[in-house]
Amino acid sequence: MTSLVRGSQLARLLGHWHALPGRRRSPDYAALAGAVRGLLADGRLPLGVRLPAERELAEALKVSRTTVTAAYRGLRESGHLTSRRGAGSWTTLPRGHRVASSGLWTPLDDMDMIDLGCAALAAPAELLPSARAAAEDLPRYLDGAGYHPTGIVELREAIAQEYTERGLTTSAEQIMVTNGTQHALDLVLRLTVPAGAGVLVESPTYPNALAALSARRARIATHGLDALGAGWDADLLLDAIRQTRPRLAYLIPEFQNPTGHLMPAELRERVVATAHASGTDLVVDESFVDLALDGTPMPPPTAVFDRHSRVVCIGGMSKPYWGGLRVGWVRASAPFVQRLAALRVGVDMASPVLDQLVAVHLLARADVIVRARQAQLAAQRDALAAALREALPEWRFTLPRGGVTLWAELDGPISSALARAAEEVGVRLAPGPRFGVDGTLERFLRFPFTLPAAELVEAVSRLAAVRYDLDRTSRPQWKEPAVFA
Rounded to two decimals, what is the model's pTM? Predict the structure, then answer.
């Protein structure tokens, strides 16, 4: 069934879709069509969604119907919209496009694009020898069916040992191996969040977590982070849990994505206690826990303070090791893991044995690999920060002490417009509103520092030129087939 976005909803997503202040105005229909393309490009407007009727959208935007008609016509011509008389108009994928590493649609001919939309590192040198060693281990599993819903024992033991070394005593029975962290989150939500249940998330937060929550039809409430300050306001966060009493709260306490903030130990303890009192389960995303930079001391795991099995930890190999190795995990009470495994059998049965064996060998080399990753990321972060300070001094940011992303406050609500213009000069961005639920955050932009330093510096140079050109460009120029989707 095709979903429908109403006029008021699309108007809220579009936000400030007109020309920027100080810029010569482009025709309203062109600006509107460009803004819709931008929503498609950064994933806020999915494919296959039926757009509101022309009259309804015109009323919501307070523009003439002629403007909306012309915008829809432009979107049909560029392949972003398909219309059928009596059935309406719905978003489509233009020809010559593919799925990018970020999961968004992108032209086939942009393989040389500097992609700042994806916050992930290339594979470490240790991956190949680990894969060879895993292949040698594989024969001892070949006599069985190969289905291990909770994961192979040796990987679960290795992950449990990692938690124990961090100060959280854990057994293999408390670990379930998944196909990445996103898969872990999806399974936990399937088990714990019925349709219409309330869920609390940080704002900004991880876009794919928002997508998973939307798929569960959760009622999403937000706690706004102080982007350039301490991050979480303790009183506001705890009050949000007490007042909304959500079924679940999803938090990223270690180098929060996208802001890079690190939650202090005292607040972790208070959050766990408040969640218990409110009947709220906590899902703690630990994707970046291994990536402390500059010797930053790490607080204890949030689950250390859990006495009532309210905290579910999820993590994976994607950030410190490699995104192509789809290995993640859930750490929870043993009964919860068994319930999760029973549910999982109806979803995907189990994770690939060979991938799990590769993960075992990588974790055995964790000290060497993670130390190298930390040094690499610190150097790339510093290069990015220096380039931003020199080329775009009006932009503000707090240097993250870990993780892989820098969250910058821009000199105006231009994030989406800048992302659209940056594509034309070979830079892909993830604009601020993609990290929220209500179309705000237009003053912010996420910068991953996972690419080589030279590429990051070049990307900033191109962005600086685009930023200043935005004030002089009369109208967006769309090339075929290099269009947004």
Answer: 0.82
